[in-house]
Specification:
Layout (H helix, E strand, L loop, with lengths): L25 H15 L3 E5 L5 H8 L4 E6 L2 H14 L5 E5 L2 H10 L13 E6 L6 H11 L7 E12 L7 E2 L2 E9 L2 E8 L4
Parallel strand pairs: 1-2, 1-4, 2-3, 4-5
Antiparallel strand pairs: 5-8, 6-7, 7-8
Helix pairs in contact: 4-5
Length: 198
């Protein structure tokens, strides 16, 4: 694996051993970021089921202002931290060692501390890539983003799910509505946007 473009272009990345974590291929990442190009610079990016961190690091390389990585597997977290260190990245990101649903519920329900008076972060781009065999993770995560965790999304946010090409996701999850699907090899990317409140 490598960074495709941007300030870290062509730098190599490690992937966790075994089949539990399936890194997004270079080719699919390139397709994804070609679509995201108009909105990536300065964006706040959420990388769910981050694995090696390749997608979030690509976002940083291309000018994202902030990336939040969420991953719970210890082996993947070790590789993710190692990749950030290898690339010399020390700022512009946070790592959350937690299950995605747990983290999203906590992040979306957290009240701002009175002394800070800050709202929870709102993400302009959300990418999720659960294990392909964990079908329930897609429904749970997209359901949260289209429901109780919708406050984590900035106005006009895009949510992208990577999944098996032959395993179709739903067209809608709560307020999230699919706007586009791109297929490449055995994989597919489903793009969602929040429907405006009526």
């Amino acid at each position: 694996m490598r960074i495709i473009a941007g300030s870290l272009r062509s730098r190599s990345l490690e992937a966790p051993p075994g089949l539990n974590t399936r890194p997004t291929s270079d080719r699919l990442r390139e397709t994804l970021f070609n679509v995201l190009a108009p909105r990536i610079v300065g964006a706040v990016f959420l990388d769910l089921y981050a694995g090696s961190g390749a997608v979030g690091m690509e976002a940083l390389s291309r000018g994202a202002a902030q990336v939040e990585f969420v991953e719970r597997a210890p082996a993947a977290l070790k590789i993710l931290r190692g990749n950030l260190e290898k690339l010399g990245l020390t700022a512009g990101f946070h790592i959350h060692a937690a299950a995605v649903a747990t983290w999203m519920r906590r992040a979306s329900s957290a009240d701002p501390k009175p002394e800070r008076r800050e709202e929870p972060a709102r993400y302009e781009i959300v990418f999720l890539d659960p294990p392909y065999d964990a079908a329930e993770e897609y429904a749970a995560t997209l359901g949260l983003l289209g429901g109780v965790a919708a406050r984590l999304l900035a106005d006009g946010a895009v949510v992208i799910a990577e999944h098996r090409r032959k395993e179709a996701l739903e067209d809608c999850y709560g307020a999230l509505e699919r706007t586009r699907i791109l297929k490449q090899g055995d994989a597919a990317l489903s793009f969602y946007a929040a429907r405006p409140a009526r």
